[in-house]
Amino acid sequence: MQVTGKVGLFGAAGAAGQCIATALSAAGRDYRVVGRSRKALEAAFGHDPRAEIVTWNPDDATSIAAAAAGLQTVIYLVGVPYDQFAAHPPLVEKTLAGVTAAGVERFILIGTVYPYGRAHGNPITENHPREPHTFKGKMRLAQENLVLAAHGRHGLSTLVLRLPDFYGPGIERSLLNGVFEGAAHDKRAQMIGPVDVPHEFIYLPDIGPVVEKLTRAPEAYGRWWHLAGAGTITQREVARQAYALAGREPRLTVAGKTMLRVLGLFNPLMRELVEMNYLMTEPVVLDDTALSTLIGPLGKTSYEDGIRQSFAAAREAASAGAATGRTSAGPA
Prior knowledge:
Elements: E1 7-10, H1 15-26, E2 31-35, H2 38-45, E3 51-55, H3 61-68, E4 73-76, H4 88-101, E5 106-111, H5 135-149, E6 157-162, E7 165-167, H6 177-185, E8 189-192, E9 199-203, H7 207-214, E10 224-226, E11 232-233, H8 235-245, E12 252-255, H9 257-264, H10 268-273, H11 278-281, H12 289-295, H13 303-329
Parallel strand pairs: 1-2, 1-4, 2-3, 4-5, 5-6, 6-10, 7-9, 8-12
Antiparallel strand pairs: 9-11
Helix pairs in contact: 1-7, 3-4, 4-5, 6-8, 6-13, 8-13
């Protein structure tokens, strides 16, 4: 693969950005992390001498271009609140204009299965039609289309890497995080159901080496690719394994679509989950044969190992929290 120049992670402070940064650093590559909050970036990357920390205002064209100056590749990880998905297309449009002005050569969007809508049969390849029936899927599709339309313009090459739902150590925004925290704290796990349907999850640290390779693979650009998990598993089985590691039987509180509607009357986030609940009853499972053919074997952490590492991180956090609580309480 071609040796490439400096990489910038836009929207770097989240879990995916940290996983990709770890892979870049392990490969001996300097990289730039870009976000709104210097404090958050320093907390996540301040320990790594290979990380250059830059703040930006994604609504300001000059700020975007300055954040992208000197980069060969931009990896776009910018998130928005779940109830503000309409912001996705204009945000990426502004960023594409800024990185193009800065002379960036490659642009990678980390995408989702939302633009596909309902699967016509699993697993699906990249030839599956993109027919979203949800608002969030339509906004993600519009975002992707802007990225792909920019390919070949003003020296910019673009691609989309599509991921399933993710999990991993300390990843709070995972559907499975409540399982690991519940097992570690000996509490009920809060879950979104149904929990007995086979579902695909990717162990998020596995994406880093793949993205690092894609920054060095010019032949990959101009299309979208799938990166799948290690097969499928039910959420109930994840809970069984996690609680077994704690020496306990699973205790679950499961919110299905009806309960989400009720909870949504009081909690805006729960309301936003309703339209995407079809993915729990009709999961989309990805086939990543094309990507492995292009860049070689894709490292996949087994569910058994991923659950073990995720539970260990939750148990360590629980122990640290308990120790802090004892320390702060002072003498009786």
